[in-house]
Amino acid sequence: MPTFPVPAGVANQLFYLQRDPNTNTIIYQLNVNSAGQVDEEEPINVFWLRYDEQGQRKELIFIQRKFAYGLTAKKLAADKYELKFAAYDKVPFYPLKSGADKAFHVCTVVANKQILLTRVYLRIEGDTFWVPNVRYIEFKGWDAATHASVVTRVKVWAPYPPSSRLSQRLRRRSEFRPAAHSHPARNRRASSSAPSHW
User: Fold this and answer.
1) Residue 91 domain-assigned?
2) Range of the domain at 134
3) How many domains does the chain have?
4) pTM for the complete prediction?
5) Tell me: the pLDDT tens digits for 148-178?
6) Which one, of 64, 63, 51, 53, lies nearest residue 7 by Cα?
7) Is 3 a domain residue?
8) Per the domain annotation, does 45 fall within a domain?
9) In a domain, 55, yes or no
10) Exposure check for the chain: N or C terminus, fewer CB within 10 A?
11) Is the peptide bond before 162 cis (omega within 30 degrees of 0)?
């Protein structure tokens, strides 16, 4: 398992996501204008910090945004949103403004604990481009009631839950995916440049 860096110096960072097999990190950043108002159309910016390369910022590709690391955002009230991962929507997140530091923090509930989230980690044991084998999702942060440090895991024994939207989409996509010999040049490009969903 690699030694993961801790992102620093990212303005309005809410939390970050890391996973095997490398240290490249995804940042979830509150999207605000110069007046500090949340962008209602796109409240969260999601992007890579490519530590395995030169630490540069890089946008997610379409597949990663729509099927894996991207978030859906549902507005509940002024400056209140429900966020869910594109690939795993069983754990919603809620950006809330703190009365103490006037900053936004992401709150979620895992194993009956209300957590102020700082990090998400995906344990992947063997993967393919379309269906990585995610064994568990680890949530790290602070207990909202006691302020004690919290780390809790959600087991994901199948590559993705069979009933999940991503699993269904991947099955449909694999049925229509061309054989490797159909377009050798195109397949070589895809396999070398496009990272796995998780």
Assistant:
1) yes
2) 13-193
3) 1
4) 0.78
5) 999 999 998 554 444 555 555 545 554 444 4
6) 51
7) no
8) yes
9) yes
10) N
11) no
